[in-house]
Known about the structure:
Helices cover about 85% and strands about 0% of the residues. The protein is mostly helical. The protein has a domain at about 170-285: Receptor-associated Protein, CATH 1.20.81. The radius of gyration is 30 Å and the shape is flat.
Amino acid sequence: xxxxTHLTIESAIVxxxxxxxxxxxxxxxxxAAAAWFSYILLAMALxxxxxxxxxxxxxxxxRITLRKHSLxxxxxxxxxxxLAAGPLGCGSQSPELERLLPLAFPxxxxxxxxxxxxxxxxxxxxxxFGLVIGSAIGGWTFGLVMASLGLWGYPQLMVRDAFxxxxxxxxxxxxxLPYTIxxxxxxxxxxxxxxxxxxxxTQGGRDHPLDQELAxxxxxxxxxxxxxxxxxxxxxxVDDDSVRxxxxxxxxxxxxxxxxxxxxxxxxxxxxxxxxxxxEKASAEAQVRIVFPGMLIMIACLLIVLSPFVxxxxxx
Length: 316
């Protein structure tokens, strides 16, 4: 009797200790979150206000577009602006991300600091969700693990997704580039100008990366920007050797007075030749890589065929 009572008291004390520990941990987390949020509000209140009366129309349109595409940015735009200027908007991949974001999200004009800040704020929401679900499933320890994974892993996944989107965008552009350049060359040989040829070439698909880039190039030319600067901006946005060689050949041909149609025709042939060479190289590499999986499959097939004859020998 006394032993059972003693064990009951000890188990009650252990449970009470666990509850107190969980309550203390929750209190500390809530206090840290409240202190951090108070610091952000105080910094926003004391920050020197910028004069936006003479802001560029482009910046206003950019922010309107961001509000349409990002719910977090729409709700917390002042907070995002404040945090983007601090450590939360910095990262080791910021320069590379700044260059690739226009390729990954052509319709959303992100800055790298804004993108990282928004994704880290979303990571906080994911961490809180993971904390609640993890605590309900496996206790506070599992909940904290889930929250840590959400807080750190979600922004990393979003950055990786942006890099993958940019790579896919570039591959799609380079896949269509030789044929579009060849089409423009044919139309110019028939008497059309470069602007008319590009307009005709981009009418088929406005959602394709190459058509979008040519549309940007046409828009800049129509605004009166010199063709040299517009082509150089195109090469900087895409950042590929094939596009840089094409732009360099077009600029040199324009300086030397060479027919642009012949320049484009030569560049189209070079791009197609380079693409065939890349395909042959990829085919040769695939043949080498498939040897080991092929050997494993062959061994498995041999085991399946020979096992009915070999297993009775061992059973004897």
